[in-house]
Amino acid sequence: MDYQGSTVRDFLHANGQVVLERVDNNHNLRSFTQKEIEDITGGYSTMLGEGGFGKVYKGKLDDLHPVAVKRYKNGTKKEEFAKEVIVHSQINHKNVVRLFGCCTEENALTIVMEFVCNGNLYNILHCSSSNANGCMPFPLDKRLDIAIESAEALSCMHSMYSPVLHGDIKPANILLDENFRPKISDFGIARLLAADKTQHTRHVIGCIGYMDPLLSQSGILLPKSDVYSFGVVLLEIITRKKAVEGNNNLAKSFLEAVRKGKKVRQMFDEEIVNDKKNMKFLEDIAKLAAECLKLEEKMRPEMLEVADRLRTIRKAYHLRKGRHSTVAIPDLLKVKRQRMLYRSFPLTN
Q1: 70 assigned binding-site residue
Q2: I want to staple 347 with a disulfide (CB 3.0 to 4.6 A). Which of 51, 128, 223, 257 is the partner?
Q3: SS3 state at 81
Q4: Beta-bridge partners for 69
Q5: Class of domain 6-114
Q6: At what angle do helices 140-158 and 303-321 cross, to 10 degrees?
Q7: 101 has which bridge partners?
Q8: What global pTM score does this model have?
Q9: Can you name the CATH fold of 121-341?
């Protein structure tokens, strides 16, 4: 099979339009045929989920490497497909889902990605894969590990020559591998900025509860928009409450409590609050989340600073606990791995 055929470049050039002109693209992607995609997916036999763009299937490459295959609806969304390939192909980071290649045949637009086996952060936080006894245990140090590595991936994306803005950061888009390490996924609405950061992308659709209020007002996606969304994720990590549930908005409730000078500790997840030694670290994370959620874009920290401060919190946590290695998530989570899989693939487009 070709790994960099002219078909990929020609298709992206024809459909990427302004995006392709703004960046130097590296298309070191494997170019698949429709027949190869059918073989990889076993005739599209195992669907992981579907969304507005189309469907996602599980498959295996010829070396038996498991993959997820995102298939766009026939003959539609060609430009969205091209933009997703272009943006995703720029990123090479251990905490970002790896892109293997794509098929550009007219009625078989597909993206072939790394398959991540343990569902996503949303499932663990909100008990989507719980057993009869309720939510699975989720120790604070493992929550910190996931937050730190996710922040590091976003920091890397923001610091690239042509920065990548994800635009849809939320727990459902933070997948977890066999070691429960995070993998940022779903670049369907991600965007590239010019190197000087003077050009911004308009008309970006985000997710209610995570969207930067400035983005909803201006339609302009900025690096600090991802910072805001990550602030909401931090709140979910320490409270185990959903960003939006009924009429309750987690970020608004949290910020209102902070504004009124109320203690926010009553919002923390009971599992990690029961250990009183955790309180200082939870309050430090909450303080960082509050800074990420500031309305004034310039007052929010950069993702690099967010990652640094989370690492500082983790170091102090380990010193306080008297250990230098993290506690693994109980084996109970691994037993539930397959059950999580079929309900957890992020489908937001």
Answers
A1: yes
A2: 51
A3: helix
A4: 57, 112
A5: alpha beta
A6: 160
A7: 30, 112
A8: 0.85
A9: Transferase(Phosphotransferase); domain 1 (1.10.510)
pLDDT: is 279 or 17 the higher one?
279
Cα–Cα distance, 163 to 156 (Å, whole number): 9
Question: How much of the chain is in helix, strand and coil states, percent to nearest 5?
Answer: 45, 15, 40
Q: How far is CA 347 from the centre of its chain?
A: 11
Element (H, E) at 239: helix 223-239
Instruction: Return all residues near 77 (Cβ < 8 A) that are at least 6 apart.
Output: 53, 54, 109
Query: pLDDT averaged over the chain?
Result: 82
Residue 47 φ then ψ, to 5°: -85, 130
Domains of the chain by residue range: 6-114, 121-341
Which tens digit of pLDDT belongs to each residue from 241-274? 999 998 999 999 999 998 887 778 899 999 999 8
By annotation, the residues acting in catalysis are 168
Structure tokens at 200: 């911004």
Give per-residue pLDDT as tens, 338-348. 444 434 444 44
Q: Give the Cα separation of 104 and 202 in Å (integer).
A: 26
pLDDT of 2 > 80? The answer is no
Residue-wise pLDDT tens digits, 45-81: 999 888 778 899 999 998 889 999 999 886 567 777 8
